[in-house]
Specification:
The protein has eleven helices and eleven strands. The longest helix is centred in the middle third of the chain and has 35 residues. It folds into three domains: about 120 residues, Butyryl-Coa Dehydrogenase, subunit A, domain 1; about 100 residues, Butyryl-CoA Dehydrogenase, subunit A, domain 2, CATH 2.40.110; about 150 residues, Butyryl-CoA Dehydrogenase, subunit A, domain 3, CATH 1.20.140. By secondary structure, it is of the alpha+beta class. Its cofactor is FAD. It is an enzyme of class 1 (oxidoreductase).
């Protein structure tokens, strides 16, 4: 029998998942990790407290090459789905707001243009968006239409050679920062996507304040009041809900990885704290109850990372289905929430301060669990796939 490897166990990579990555994937992961530790982690608590994210961060993320990094051409890196996932994991280990900025830019706004746009639209917007010189947002959710996008009220009607849009969109990440909004509207020809540049008459944004979650992120309402657009503003390839739903699936995939990153950050904070916090003459990590917490958190973080990696390999192989992504988002975000809550207990009173990342991740994940499809909706998707019959709504 071959001898067991003498390599020591790494508590931060308990299952040696690093060994499953290619050298190129590790290099990409390490570059993004270094960026996050230098440019995000030192400031994330301040951004959270001040409820802002600097617009210039988009240019830095563009230089890093993560904006639309999984898309081909037009200044995009054309990286693998797994590499993109690894980047999302490191970005969210910094803060969910930063990963959201990247996801909305690349997986929603840029992907919509890349997949459904005309060549002229791609040439006009994608290179600048990849560089972070232009920011995009994605207008699908409405005040009365979240989990049921088919009931959207925003509409677009023909008026001569133009289109006229009316309606409202709500909970839009990057809304007031965006140079262009991808807005989905009901038309006589089905659900269509429109590119609405900032400053278009009748188009306005209003930021949502007093958030207790995702504070280091701009969240806005979009108002379209008689917005007149030329026919060239329509995404020609999308004529149904398949258009926006395809974009959502891209963003949900990134969340699968991002949630694992947030969970890992909480575990690392709990390990560092518990091994240095002395009570009753010894580190609290030496007590059985704390070790049980650490073991449970390590299990969930490793399980979430393995699930994300498996889905990444499936996506690269072309075998990933939306139901798989739903399982990943449902499982990983719920697991990350439990890890964050447990880490908060390990840190005691210090766990509620922004000196440590745990409470910030914990409150952020309360948004992540419901955006891009609530946990309930993803449970119905998975349940329906398992049962072989959709859930009854009536």
């Amino acid at each position: 029998m071959a001898s067991t490897s003498a390599r020591s166990l790494d508590p931060r990579d308990f299952l040696a998942i690093d060994d499953q990555l290619s050298p190129e994937e590790r290099d990409i992961r390490d570059v993004v990790r270094c960026f996050v530790r230098e440019h995000v982690v030192p400031h994330a608590g301040e951004w959270f407290e001040q409820a802002r994210i600097p617009r210039e961060l988009a240019r830095e993320l563009g230089k890093l090459g993560v904006l639309g990094m999984h898309l081909e051409g037009y200044g995009c890196a054309g990286a693998s789905a797994t590499a993109y996932g690894l980047a999302c994991m490191e970005l969210e280990a910094g803060d969910s707001g930063v990963r959201s900025m990247v996801s909305v830019q690349g997986s929603l706004a840029m992907f919509a243009i890349h997949r459904w746009g005309s060549e002229e639209q791609k040439q006009e917007w994608l290179p600048r968006m990849a560089a972070g010189e232009a920011i995009g947002c994605f207008g699908l959710t409405e005040p009365d239409s979240g989990s049921d996008p088919g009931s959207m009220r925003t509409n677009a009607r023909r008026d001569g050679a133009d289109w006229v849009l009316n309606g409202r969109k709500m909970w839009i990440t990057n809304g007031s920062l965006a140079d262009v909004a991808v807005v989905w509207a009901r038309t006589d020809d089905g659900v269509r996507g429109f590119l609405v540049p900032k400053g278009t008459p009748g188009f306005s944004t209003h930021d949502i304040h007093s958030k207790m979650s995702l504070r280091a992120s701009v969240t806005s309402e979009l108002v379209l009041d008689g917005v007149r657009l030329p026919d060239a503003a329509v995404l020609p390839g999308a004529t149904s809900l398949r258009g926006p739903l395809s974009c959502l699936n891209e963003a949900r995939y990134g969340i699968v990885w991002g949630a694992a990153g947030a969970a890992r950050a909480c575990l690392e904070s709990a390990v560092d704290y518990s091994t240095t916090r002395i009570q009753f003459g010894r580190p609290i990590a030496s007590f059985q109850l704390q070790q049980q917490k650490l073991a449970t958190m390590a299990l969930e973080v490793n399980r979430a990372t393995l699930l994300a990696l498996h889905l990444g390999r499936m996506k690269d192989a072309g075998t990933l289905r939306p139901e798989h992504v739903s399982m990943g988002k449902l499982g990983n975000v719920n697991a990350a929430l439990e890890v964050a809550r447990t880490a908060r207990q390990v840190l005691g009173a210090n766990g509620i301060t922004l000196e440590y990342p745990v409470i910030r991740h914990m409150t952020n994940l309360e948004s992540v669990v419901t955006y891009e499809g609530t946990a309930d909706v993803h449970a119905l998707v998975v349940g329906g796939a398992v049962a072989g019959v959709p859930a009854a709504f009536r």
